[in-house]
Amino acid sequence: MTDGFMNVLKPPGMTSHDVVSFVRRVLHTRKVGHAGTLDPGAAGVLPVAVGRATRLIEYLDSVDKAYRAELKFGIATDSGDDLGTVVERQENFVMPTIPVLQQAARQLTGSIMQVPPAYSAIKIHGEKACDLARRHIAVEIPAREVMIYRLEILSQRTDTLLLDVECSKGTYIRTLCTDFGRLVGIPATMSFLVRLRVGDFCLKDSCTLEELNEKRTAAVLPPERFLSHLPRYDLAPHRIQAFLNGLPTHDTAFSGPSGRVCVYGPDGFLGVGCFQAETASVFPEKIYQLR
Fold this sequence. Notes:
Blueprint: E1 4-10, H1 16-27, E2 32-34, E3 43-50, E4 65-73, E5 75-77, E6 86-89, H2 98-107, E7 110-114, E8 123-124, E9 127-128, H3 129-134, E10 144-156, E11 160-167, H4 173-184, E12 188-198, E13 201-202, H5 209-215, E14 232-234, H6 240-244, E15 249-250, E16 259-265, E17 268-276, E18 281-287
């Protein structure tokens, strides 16, 4: 069994699940999953886990992401992108000045409240909001706090802006574009999106589907390469078997806040543990290395 992560460049027009199905066919295994769903019309980085690494997908949920997006002024849609139904249109508008645009960008930077679009995977009473919306069932999605670390205007054309965004998990770039238009008084929608980064997964290192078909197992990388956001904990050799058996290790020499850690032994990555500062102990959470 091949185990690890793949850094896939998802093309527009495919769903994230389509990519998983492609990898399953290429590697001849069913044990494949993905992290950080991309909309079908979007392109860019899609982390894919294979084999035992599928158990580590949840540890990618909290990582930051980076995007490049095109914002189109003059229309607003029910989905927040140009694939949706137009619900508002404004023609012959005057493009805001650079200072006005930059002020809007500043207002959308930092900790903001954002209402996810109706056409999203947010669960409402156990069902995806997008499935309810397709059945014309009105849903009310509560606002939630997200963090926009950077929102930079790269270029401006007649009716579009090119934006770079660095943000926390749970951020919807479609909503960010809609909110940007609201701040400058012109309806807006997202007309293009490419994801540049998911944590340690970067676009420059990603593989196209054609490249994956050629590389196959050579494209599967050690999972610990993509878990650098978790502190490293080096387990004493005599405690390795205890860790693999699910037993905690008391270690007063290790300091830091309580939280998850990547656990290593002399021969490499063992799995993910949870450090409890109050007891100075590391508890196994997900065992990766085979016993």
